[in-house]
Design brief:
six-stranded parallel β-sheet; single chain; binds pyridoxal-5'-phosphate; 28% helix
């Protein structure tokens, strides 16, 4: 063992997941894998390079800095920067050939000015706010058409929106948003503006086959990493199965015996009701173990499911190994794996599975296998 805590990432599995998604949406729909937030904890550079090599034409990130990191890692695919860029990032957007998403008419004018002084044509995608109420252009179609006609130096390569309730199949919001997007698109089309790419869907509407939301491009994040977003309401059956690509482990640093009545950790939140044996793992909330798992999470050592006891500390987590003779210092404990994955941990912690993945911190070494 070479690490205190590490994740083993199967790049091959991520590529298989990409292919499964591509098969589901069909050849006419571009799949743009979302590799923001360090590729949901899997390591953006390695994952992006591997998707690039596997033939992905587009990758999506949130920030300019994330896009720059991928260009510097040698990624050749087009890179969509979805989280807007600030004035100090303009230079990097242009020099690293990133494609920004524009979220307002004012930003479109700024970008057109930037494009007019650039030696090559700059392109962008335009996001319409159809109900998310966060980023996205809120102008009327007429205002938008006018602004696009004036932005003569910018190439409008894509039109997009983002769903607010994508996994809630009891809500009418997604179909309302699809309709609003369709109306915008039709208005632009009748004005002769036809961006080649249109996209709305993240993992939920892809996984559940909500074809009306696919346009000709989709943006899977969670699904690419092997998890269908937990759905509520009357969800249509899953159209695509992907498999988790990551196993998270931590070393046992210490095993100790406690007498009945001894307590464990901050706030003495757990107390031994009988003689007990505790293993201390080299992983804590700074590494991404949810503090919500105090006295309710579990880890696996030697095939045994063992309960987390007491508070999760910043750097350490304790488990009750009284029933498991195999927990010795140096043994590996599995926090996430085939038996207990990020969706299961998220459920126990009362958080979204994306939270589990993207909280995995810098001290968690990423180890890659081709398999
Ligand atoms: C993060 C993000 C996605 C991917 O979301 P998942 O539900 O994880 O697939 C897609 N589109 C936008 C705009 C995002 O910010």
């Amino acid at each position: 063992m070479l690490y205190r805590t590490w994740v083993e990432v199967s790049l091959d599995r991520i590529v298989k997941n990409l292919r499964a998604i591509q098969r589901t949406v069909g050849r006419d729909v571009v799949v743009s894998p979302v590799v923001k937030a360090n590729a949901y904890g899997h390591g953006a550079r390695m994952v992006a390079r591997c998707l690039d090599a596997a033939g992905a034409h587009w990758l999506a990130v949130s920030t300019t800095e994330e896009g720059v990191e991928l260009r510097d890692a040698g990624v050749r695919a087009d890179i969509l920067v979805m989280g807007d860029f600030l004035p100090f990032e303009e230079e990097a957007v242009v020099s690293h050939r990133l494609t920004p998403v524009i979220h307002s008419l004012a930003r479109l004018r700024d970008y057109d000015r930037l494009a007019s002084s650039s030696s090559r044509q700059l392109s962008c995608h335009l996001k319409i706010d159809t109900g998310m109420g966060r980023l996205g252009c809120r102008a009327t179609a007429a205002e938008l058409i006018d602004a696009l006609r004036q932005a003569r130096h910018v190439k409008l390569e894509g039109l997009m929106t983002h769903f607010a309730s994508a996994s809630d199949f009891g809500s009418p919001q997604t179909s309302d948003q699809i309709a609003a997007f369709g109306a915008f698109r039709a208005a632009l089309r009748s004005a002769g503006i036809t961006p080649p790419l249109t996209h709305l869907a993240s993992s939920g509407p892809i996984a559940h086959g909500l074809q009306a939301s696919w346009g000709n491009m989709v943006r899977p994040g969670l699904l690419l990493y092997g998890y269908a977003p937990p759905a509520s309401g009357n969800a249509p059956r899953l159209m695509v199965t992907t498999v988790p690509a990551l196993t998270w482990k931590a070393a046992v640093v210490e095993v100790r015996d406690l007498a009945a009545g001894d307590s464990v950790g901050y706030g003495a939140r757990w107390r031994a009701s009988r003689a007990a044996r505790i293993a201390v793992l080299a992983v804590g909330y700074a590494d991404g173990v949810p503090p919500e798992l105090a006295n309710r999470g579990k880890v696996i050592i030697g095939g045994h499911e063992l309960p987390i006891v007491g508070a999760v500390s910043m750097d350490l987590t304790c488990v009750d190994v009284t029933e498991c003779a195999c927990a010795r210092p140096g043994a590996a404990a599995t926090l996430l794996g085939p038996v207990y994955d990020a969706v299961a941990m998220a459920r126990d912690a009362g958080v979204d599975p994306r939270t589990i993945l993207c909280r995995m911190g810098r001290r968690v070494s990423r180890v890659y296998s081709a398999q």
